């Protein structure tokens, strides 16, 4: 099956028999490998070093382990343009992510990749969320304010599925009372959806808890999150506590709370189903590698470094060794979807804590500290 066929039939292909999806994912990734081998001198040199060519690559899942993975830190290098398989003037979009160290990752996408990724994510949203109307409360900046932020771009694709929406992080400030006002304004007229990184949803929950306010959202309402569960301070947030507070203060069940996993260097977005398993789309393959030996692939169920092979990436080889620790599960999911599901646990020891949500949180909290330290009446006295 071709990549175009996969993108046009996500609902069906994500429920294909096991033997079929194994063949499909191997074929589309092998095709992507052949393209980058042909067009990318830097990547071809990595393949030449191990004697790998499109002709001797086994077009099976077990054969995919031989494809060289690019360490994610390469996207932070000043010469990251060497990763490109297309001319620099063919790049349409640059996505950036800044972590606590302040060094941005830059992932450049050509026009075909942008188109394919938009089709892919919209197909996943429709299948896993079934959204076609309602109102979206976005607890993040708009793309107008942060046009290069990957997390916001991914959230923004939901806009076309809603009848109404608003972005509540403006100039890196968030007012939970404004969020409550919107939720009450939409009550009874539209199904309400809350979208944002976990730490900002948690800020809304803390506000409701402190004010002793308990809402009852609609039966079809959802809370959709992306951005990791560790704060910029290093403190981890508990998913169980998070879900429990949503149930208590927003009045919706845990099956309506859906987290997503992705990173800007790949086009893979793994979205949770109602069973809270994050499904790897059929144009991607997750390869778990031994933490001490990235060339050694671990079997399903073992914990190691997450490697991602992404057939959507045309601008550069989408074969990435992340700094994330997790595992894959290939057992049948009760939701009926087949293929891999991925679980992310933490960043590797020594890896920079970096994602869009971390940058937003750090900036918001720094602004709040400045505001709290301001001397009352200082402006008036000038």
From TrEMBL:
SUPFAM superfamilies: Acetyl-CoA synthetase-like (SSF56801). Residues 27-361 form the Acyl-protein synthetase LuxE domain. InterPro entries: ANL_N_sf, CapK_Type1_Caps_Biosynth, LuxE. It comes from the Bacteria. This is Acyl-protein synthetase LuxE domain-containing protein. It comes from Actinokineospora guangxiensis.
């Amino acid at each position: 099956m071709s990549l175009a066929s996969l993108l046009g039939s996500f609902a069906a292909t994500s429920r294909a028999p096991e033997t079929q999806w194994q063949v499909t994912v191997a074929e589309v990734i092998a095709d992507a490998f052949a393209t980058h081998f042909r067009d990318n001198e830097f990547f071809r040199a990595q393949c030449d070093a191990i004697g790998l060519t499109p002709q001797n690559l086994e077009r099976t899942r077990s054969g995919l382990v031989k494809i060289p993975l690019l360490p994610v830190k390469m996207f932070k290098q000043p010469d990251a343009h060497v990763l490109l398989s297309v001319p620099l003037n063919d790049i349409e979009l640059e996505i950036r992510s800044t972590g606590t160290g302040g060094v941005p990752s830059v992932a450049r996408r050509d026009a075909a990749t942008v188109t394919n990724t938009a089709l892919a994510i919209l197909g996943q949203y429709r299948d896993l969320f079934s959204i076609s109307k309602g109102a979206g409360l976005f607890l993040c900046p708009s793309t107008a304010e942060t046009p290069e932020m990957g997390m916001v771009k991914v959230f923004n694709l939901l806009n076309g599925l809603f009848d109404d929406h608003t972005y509540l992080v403006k100039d890196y400030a968030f007012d939970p009372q404004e969020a409550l006002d919107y939720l009450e304004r939409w009550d009874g007229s539209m199904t309400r959806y809350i979208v944002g990184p976990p730490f900002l949803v948690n800020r809304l929950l803390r506000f409701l808890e402190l004010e002793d306010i308990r809402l009852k959202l609609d039966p079809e309402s959802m809370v959709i999150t992306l951005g990791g569960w560790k704060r910029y301070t290093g403190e981890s947030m508990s998913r169980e506590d998070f879900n429990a507070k949503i149930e208590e203060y927003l009045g919706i069940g845990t099956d309506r709370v859906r987290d997503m996993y992705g990173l800007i260097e790949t086009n893979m977005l793994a979205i949770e189903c109602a069973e809270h398993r994050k499904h790897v789309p059929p144009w991607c393959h997750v390869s778990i590698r031994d933490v001490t030996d990235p060339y050694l692939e671990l079997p399903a169920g073992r914990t190691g470094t997450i490697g991602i092979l992404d057939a959507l990436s045309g601008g550069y080889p989408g074969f990435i060794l992340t700094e994330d620790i997790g595992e894959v599960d290939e057992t049948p999911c009760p939701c009926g979807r087949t293929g891999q599901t991925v679980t992310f646990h933490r960043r590797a020891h020594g890896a920079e804590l970096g994602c869009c949500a971390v940058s937003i949180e750090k900036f918001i909290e720094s602004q709040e500290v400045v505001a709290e330290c301001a001397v009352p009446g200082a402006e008036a006295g000038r």
